[in-house]
């Protein structure tokens, strides 16, 4: 915007007026007045415009400048604020007061270390008035690109008002405890600029975006075998429940046919627990209780299926086993989850095995599994790690974390921007693996092609179901609710 001629002064006015309007719309925040903490740069200037607008609206307002002002424009706004009667506090404000604090210390692109004294002051304020500590753009002490704290110092805001677009650092897991509620404030970015963003620009996706996604719908004339065929290879003597949950996830997708290869201890009761699932074979049980899938896959025509899910609950054998080469020749979608990823990571080829695959592959690791498969990729920033991994192994990667990242080999990337910590529970990963396998099978059956945006939308739908389910937060309840949502979407 600046390179196109937008004056800094004009943008500062838009930002300040936008923030003050947001605050004035929430009168409960300012019923006991407000204090703006003014930083040395343009973030401090934004805060001073907010102070001016609130003052003009009749709010009891004061400012505190813990650092010398360095920007000429910020100094001008400070001078004007003083002249019109806004109080400049000579000492640090009382953190036990019930006034609203508006933190405008550093903002975007921070590198300056803030003192422990200021961090303590802000965190004390947060404890005394949990909803009355707002940060402009980025909380002080937080890196706006990666979400890490600068020299381990930051504070916990109640709300962060992100200007223009969401800063990628604000939605990384490392930032969750510091940003509070995140709100995006429009600053009038021209559509021309947005239209010129590259396709590889990471996109924050939220539950509202589900209404814009068109789910694959096979023709009504198609039979069950033409509406997505899924094969689930899962479970072991130790992890029997993982197979059941993965099958539930696949069934919830609405795929026309779900088959399974399971250990005998699970398959022997399949008729009573999952009567709609077709049994395609039994997994061999190794002495340590884990499952071996290499032999049975050579006895099955894999290309009868649109997608194959391999991994949930297989266990990790004490001895190295061959990662079945029959899967490399499979032309449908291969979804590798959990112990399939762990097993691949200890083979001689590791992730390089994926480059020889004939069909598309989706990987669904959590962070520890990701580290095992990609030990040379820095995983401290999940967004960057997911992008690098997808390009490296030529697969689509769903890196599961609080704000899960989905990336394809061409660099298109999505990150889920809403989080509900109550759904971080055992079994939901198995449901997710089955669900995306089913959705991928439906996608292939419907269009004969696959796009990673289907993986992203499926992961987002799974997150939505977890956050919205009223029956509970356990995997079985959420899976049932997910099935109901998909049925409505497909009608």
Q: How large, in whole angstroms, is the Cα Rg?
A: 26 Å
Q: CATH superfamily of the largest domain, please?
A: Ribokinase
Structural class: alpha/beta
| Unreliable segments of 5+ consecutive residues | none
Largest sheet: 11 strands, mixed
Q: What is the total domain count?
A: 2
Helix count, per DSSP? 17
Multimeric status of the protein: single chain
Q: Can you count the beta strands? A: 18
Question: What fraction strand?
Answer: 15-25%
Q: Helix content range of the residues, please?
A: 25-40%
Which topology of the largest domain does CATH recognise?
UDP-N-acetylmuramoyl-L-alanine:D-glutamate ligase
What is the topology, as strand order, of the major beta sheet?
A: 8-18-17-16-15-14-13-9-10-11-12
In the CATH hierarchy, the architecture of the largest domain is 3-Layer(aba) Sandwich
C-alpha geometry = elongated
Mean pLDDT: 93
Distance between the termini: 44 Å
| The CATH class of the largest domain | Alpha Beta
Outline the structure in words.
By secondary structure, this protein is an alpha/beta fold. The chain has two domains: 8-197, 3-Layer(aba) Sandwich (Rossmann fold), CATH 3.40.50; 207-490, 3-Layer(aba) Sandwich (UDP-N-acetylmuramoyl-L-alanine:D-glutamate ligase), CATH 3.40.1190.20. Helix content is 35%, strand content 16%. It is built from 17 helices and 18 strands. It has an eleven-stranded mixed beta sheet, with helices on both faces. Helix 5 links the parallel strand 6 and strand 7. The longest helix has 20 residues, at 428-447.
